[in-house]
């Protein structure tokens, strides 16, 4: 096996992790931004006002994207299992 093959596997793994993290974090960041703008416009400085919407959106993102992320992990795992014979030669 060549080092390029392992680099490609590592790149695929990092790309998958990036997609999975973004699917969870980005909606929470956007809601946090909207709540921060609302708080700045109304001069409401309540910490729990920004925490609860982000928590709810993060949980909804996990519910919505959970199946996709599980499928991605399963596909990657099966791909790694298929690579085993190539690694042994």
TrEMBL record:
Keyword Transmembrane set for record: yes
Which of UniProt's keywords are assigned here?
Bacterial flagellum, Cell membrane, Cell projection, Cilium, Flagellum, Membrane, Transmembrane, Transmembrane helix
Q: Which domain of life is it from?
A: Bacteria
Location, primary (coarse class)? membrane
Where are the membrane-spanning stretches?
Answer: 13-39, 51-70
List the GO cellular component terms. bacterial-type flagellum basal body; plasma membrane
A Gene Ontology annotation in the biological process aspect, one of them, is: protein secretion
Q: How does it sit in the membrane?
A: Multi-pass membrane protein
The signal peptide here is none
Give the subcellular location. Answer: Cell membrane; Bacterial flagellum basal body
Say which family it is in.
Belongs to the FliQ/MopD/SpaQ family.
What's the stated role of this polypeptide?
Role in flagellar biosynthesis.
NCBIfam families recorded: fliQ
- Which named protein is this? Flagellar biosynthetic protein FliQ
Origin organism lineage: Bacteria, Pseudomonadati, Pseudomonadota, Gammaproteobacteria, Vibrionales
């Amino acid at each position: 096996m060549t080092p390029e093959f392992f680099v490609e596997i590592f790149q695929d793994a990092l790309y998958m992790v990036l997609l999975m993290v973004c699917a969870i974090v980005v909606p929470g960041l956007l809601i946090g931004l909207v709540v921060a703008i609302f708080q700045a416009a109304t001069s409401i400085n309540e910490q729990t006002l920004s925490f609860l919407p982000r928590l709810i959106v993060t949980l909804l993102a996990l519910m919505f994207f959970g199946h996709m992320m599980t499928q991605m992990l399963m596909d990657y795992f099966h791909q790694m299992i298929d690579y085993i014979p190539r690694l042994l030669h």
